[in-house]
Amino acid sequence: MKNAWKIRLAERRDVGELLGIEEAQFPEPWTRRILLDEIENTETRRYTVAVENKRIVGYLGIMFALEELHVNTIGILPPEEGRGIASSLLDEAWADAKERAIKRATLEVAVSNQRAIDLYYRYGFRPVGVRKNYYEKSNEDALILWADLSSEPPEPPSTLE
Ligand SMILES: CC(C)(COP(=O)(O)OP(=O)(O)OC[C@H]1O[C@@H](n2cnc3c(N)ncnc32)[C@H](O)[C@@H]1OP(=O)(O)O)[C@@H](O)C(=O)NCCC(=O)NCCS
Q: Which CATH code is given to the segment(s) 6-106?
């Protein structure tokens, strides 16, 4: 079925809605200033938003460095989780990364954030290490994940296993 939302590049005017998602979804939300700096730094960043009925329902922030990308942030409006919005943002970003000949992707995720870890696993990310006390407020560790984008993602495990 066709998605009800559309993905486009983030713009300055989106920052208020992005701030709302940040504050709803992250224990250490980014500020308006950080978000604006990220969106406007189009040389090394690419921020996209998913828009449904004129509302931003999710966003994704990517940073590029040579042949690699770093997933800086991804957040979905809480009532809209579980509909495939994050997956569609990643699909769109991966298509763009292919055109840029990006070979690898990395990110940090809180060790307790199983929902996000599951999502990243489906995109071929695997753990390579831990950053101790990465999250300042909670002192929680972060898993460092990497994915190889130069090959197809591994098949999801069979439910019969
Ligand atoms: C983690 C997060 C980004 C996932 O976003 P999401 O839009 O819910 O993710 P998706 O819907 O693409 O995939 C998640 C689930 O939806 C399911 N799904 C995918 N497409 C679907 C569809 N069309 N209909 C119903 N369910 C679907 C997936 O199978 C998956 O199932 P799960 O319940 O087993 O996890 C979101 O929960 C979030 O914003 N969390 C808080 C912020 C955060 O932790 N960000 C990551 C920091 S590193």
A: 3.40.630.30
